[in-house]
Specification:
Blueprint (H helix, E strand, L loop, with lengths): L3 H31 L1 H4 L3 H11 L3 H18 L1 H10 L1 H20 L6 H31 L3 E3 L5 E3 L3 H4 L2 H25 L2 H32 L1 E6 L14 E6 L4 H5 L5 H15 L4 H23 L2 E3 L9 E2 L7 H28 L6 H5 L7
Antiparallel strand pairs: 1-2, 3-4, 5-6
Helix pairs in contact: 1-4, 1-7, 1-9, 1-13, 1-14, 4-5, 4-14, 6-7, 7-9, 9-10, 9-13, 10-12, 12-13
């Protein structure tokens, strides 16, 4: 029987894996959408780009749905609180995502340039806005969200959403957009030929360099200008805790404490920056470049997770009410059964995803689409 603390650690790690899975797979879908009008300069080129991601985008969304479901079951208090305090932002991302299935399905239904242009811009919004919102969400976690719990454990938002948005959160949104756009360009590099491929390589290299600069700037900002959170006082092992029986201290540079205590965690930011650099350097080896781009995305997500651990939703107005993996987790019984299910189903999802991309390997060519041999989007 796995003890309660270990189960909570396992599910913190699994949630990170699910987020990284969505970032790596759904991330290049969002990135291609955001870059659709930049990489595709003609209607034929944009048709190729749409057919690059349209066959797999809905399967990649499974990682997002699975992650949301896992938070609901494994960290229910964090799920309920996040949907209370971040509801407008989540609605914005959700409505933007609505443009994706409609854009993919409707773009080719009417043979008029104005119609296709409308859905092209819808796909741009459906790619760029969620990428920004997801990044802002990570930025809010690191800068803190204004909320607290009343004596009956009901969450109370201390002000509106705009009171929660900080310059660092907006900066994180820009980082996310740049990162996923780079990843999207890396996928286009793999899946296209000729002019589109050359253009994708050019943009991937520029965005990779910009991402490295932004990550370095963000690291300095966190080290010298952002108040982090740290737990103080004894924690009862294997016991249920609540946000009302802990003491949290805020201080500049606290988000680096885990890296100082566990030097191996530096592998995450190193992977984020080195992955981007190697993706740009090895751009003419498309599969390798995409692999390193994915490593960069996963490294950025892991860096944020390592920095914030064990916090899930820090409170900027009442730090002692911050949510951590210790006080937001479900019961041991729930986590035990979920762990057993994850052992069975996560490998199945990985195997199925690998099989789909193996079947759909190879570039998408404009000549194929004109002859209706492949794709109808």
């Amino acid at each position: 029987m796995i003890d309660y603390d270990t189960l909570r650690l396992i599910w913190w790690a699994l949630l990170g894996v699910l987020l990284a899975g969505f970032g790596v797979t759904g991330g290049f879908d969002l990135g291609v959408g955001a870059m659709l009008r930049v990489l595709g300069r003609t209607d034929d080129e944009r048709k190729v780009l749409v057919n690059v991601v349209a066959p797999t985008w809905d399967g990649n969304q499974v990682w997002l749905i699975l992650g949301a479901g896992a938070v609901f079951a494994a960290m229910p208090l964090a799920y309920a609180t996040s949907f209370s305090v971040l509801y407008p932002a989540m609605l914005a991302a959700l409505f933007a995502l609505f443009f994706r299935p409609t854009g993919f399905e409707y773009r080719a239904k009417v043979n008029k340039a104005r119609w296709r242009n409308f859905w092209d811009w819808a796909l741009v919004i459906g790619g760029a806005l969620p990428a920004i919102v997801f990044g802002v969400a990570f930025g809010l976690i690191l800068s803190g969200i204004p909320f607290h719990f009343d004596p009956d454990m009901r969450v109370v938002m201390d002000g509106g959403l705009w009171d929660a948005v900080t310059p660092f959160a907006l900066f994180a949104g820009v980082v996310s957009l740049v990162m996923l756009s780079m990843h999207g360009a890396a996928f286009v590099n793999l899946k296209t030929v000729d002019t589109l491929q050359v253009r994708a390589i050019s943009w991937m290299r520029r965005l990779a360099l910009l991402l490295i600069v932004l990550l370095a700037a963000g690291g300095l900002w966190i080290a010298q200008g952002i108040e982090g959170y740290s737990l103080h006082g004894p924690m009862l092992a294997n016991q249920v805790s609540t946000p009302l029986d802990q003491h949290v201290v805020r201080e500049v540079g606290a988000w680096l404490n885990n890296f100082k205590a566990h030097p191996w965690m530096w592998s995450a930011p190193i992977a984020a920056m080195a992955g981007a650099a190697l993706a740009a350097w090895l751009a003419w080896y498309p599969l390798i470049a995409l692999l390193f781009s994915g490593i960069s995305v996963a490294g950025v997500i892991a860096t944020a997770g390592f920095a914030a651990f064990p916090f899930l939703l820090p409170s900027s107005t009442h730090p002692d009410h911050s949510l951590t993996i210790w006080n937001a987790a479900a019961s041991p019984h729930t986590l035990t059964w979920m762990t057993a299910a994850a052992v069975v189903f996560v490998p199945i999802i990985l195997a199925y995803t690998s099989w789909v991309f193996h079947v759909l390997r190879g570039p998408v060519r404009a000549s194929h689409l004109k002859n209706n041999e492949y794709g109808t989007y």
